[in-house]
Amino acid sequence: MQEFEKWLARVLLLNSALALAVSLGLLGEPQYGDALAVLFGVAMLGFLAAVLSLKRMISGLIGGILYYLPQVGSYFPYDSSWQFSVKAGVSLGLVARFGHGVFVLNMVALALLAVTAVVLAWRLRHRSPPASSAR
């Protein structure tokens, strides 16, 4: 499981590095205003979570969950009102069109979110008990 956890942390590192490149305007369209702030914040969270995960810290897995969570769903209304979209890293979407807008389910983020949650649950379940202090 330790090798799989390391692989998952490396995927998170790659994903967050791509998100940082997008937020800095090195890849894709340049971002402005609130979109730039949100994307940069999410990318930095993912990068920090990846570093912590590589050190096998549980907080890295929690950060990974927080990184993938806003990427799972995007909503684009037809009337150009409020929309929600955090596209950081790799994305493969399942699109659903409704009368009022388009909803995109990012399957890559959903899969990585689920796997990260499973690894976190496994780590919490198989935690070694704290050492008792003898007096």
Explain what the structure shows:
By secondary structure, the protein is mainly alpha-helical. The protein has four helices and three strands. β2 (93-97) and β3 form a beta hairpin. α1 (2-23) runs antiparallel to α2 and α2 packs antiparallel against α3 (58-68).
Question: Can you give me a brief rundown of this structure?
Answer:
The chain has 135 residues and is mostly helical. It has helices at 2-23, 33-54, 58-68, 107-125, and strands spanning 73-77, 93-97, 101-106. Strands 1-3-2 form a 3-stranded antiparallel beta sheet.
Topology of helices and strands:
Elements: H1 2-23, H2 33-54, H3 58-68, E1 73-77, E2 93-97, E3 101-106, H4 107-125
Antiparallel strand pairs: 1-3, 2-3
Model regions low in confidence, pLDDT < 50 over at least 5 residues: none
Radius of gyration: 17 Å
Helical run tally = 4
**In this structure, how is the largest beta sheet organized?**
3 strands, antiparallel
Strand residue percentage: 5-15%
Secondary-structure element string: HHHEEEH
Helix content: 40-55%
Structural class, judged by helices and strands? mainly alpha
Number of strands: 3
Mean pLDDT: 88
Which outline best applies? globular
Give the neighbour order of strands across the main sheet.
1-3-2
Distance between the termini: 36 Å
